[in-house]
Specification:
Elements: H1 3-11, H2 16-26, H3 40-43, H4 49-59, E1 67-71, H5 77-86, E2 89-94, H6 97-109, E3 116-120, E4 133-139, H7 148-158, E5 159-172, H8 196-206, E6 209-215, H9 217-228, H10 238-241, H11 245-257, E7 261-269
Helix pairs in contact: 4-5, 7-8, 9-11
Length: about 270
């Protein structure tokens, strides 16, 4: 199986629409009429959840009406947040067809289909025009991409001159190896982490200029400890990750505690 097919199979487990709509009903939500915040426990598929999305948006100084490309945007939680809170027009590109299909359904039911669209595609062959976007956005997507240089070239190509790259990513820490399974990989062959130094060098070589870089590992540890101390909720990442979700989430905290992974928030300009 190719890397792209294996990654798609890891995330696209089937039956997501039925699981998610059923959980929304059980949580007392009307699946036909949703607010973006109703979906935050499940569609903000990254450390820090909705708060991390809002923090990155503020750090990137998003402007109303900005054209944003969300690479690896999953079900579209960040995209809907940027559309609803900042007035952006967002295109989500994701490798997992099921995420794109269910994400479009959720976007329709939140009344944001005029501002958020989904394109099924590969981050190494983005289905976008050169310089189409003011902002390229990515939260927790590079971990599944082996060809980091190819990823940088595509992000740079999609961005207009003067545009910004906003990222919130899991990177390799000073200790190894990573404990598996984790949400982005059930085993090592799907995990392609790079160190912060390598990521910064790679993006600079591609033509980006760094304007902000912050290690968010301490905040990530606190966020995980707080959530893992709570009883399981009806709406949560287990709807995406399946039966291995508890082990995956515990392993992220262990990896963070042991400095096997770190979390960084950054902004670059083209």
């Amino acid at each position: 199986m190719t890397d792209a097919r294996a990654v798609g199979a890891h995330y696209g487990r089937g039956g997501l629409e039925a699981r998610l709509l059923g959980a929304l009903r059980e949580a007392g939500k009307d699946p036909e009429r949703l607010a973006p915040v109703d979906l935050a426990p499940v569609d903000q598929f990254h450390i820090g959840g909705r708060d991390a999305t809002l923090a990155l948006a503020r750090r990137a100084a998003l402007e109303r009406g900005a054209r944003v490309l969300d690479v690896g945007g999953g079900l579209g939680g960040p995209a809907r947040t940027l559309a609803a809170e900042f007035g952006c027009r967002v295109t989500v590109v994701d490798l997992t067809e099921e995420f794109c299909r269910v994400g479009a359904l959720l976007t329709e039911r939140t009344g944001l289909a005029d501002r958020v669209e989904f394109r099924h595609g590969d981050a190494l062959r983005l289905p976008v025009k050169n310089g189409e976007f003011d902002v390229v956005w990515t939260q927790h997507s590079s971990m599944n991409v082996a060809d980091k240089a190819g990823l940088s070239r595509e992000l740079f190509r999609a961005l207009r001159p003067g545009g910004r790259l906003a990222m919130h990513e899991i990177l390799a820490g000073p200790e190894a190896p990573v404990h598996f399974p984790v949400p982005w990989a059930s085993e090592p062959s799907l995990s392609h982490l790079e160190t912060p130094a390598a990521a910064r060098d790679r993006l600079t070589v591609a033509g980006f200029t760094e304007t902000a870089w912050t290690d968010r590992s301490a905040e990530a540890i606190a966020w995980f400890r707080e959530r893992l101390s709570q009883p399981p909720a009806v709406l949560g990442l287990h709807l995406l990750l399946g039966a291995d979700a508890p082990a995956m989430l515990r392993n992220i905290l262990r990896n963070l505690d042991e400095r096997r992974v770190v979390v960084a928030e950054a902004v670059f300009h083209r």
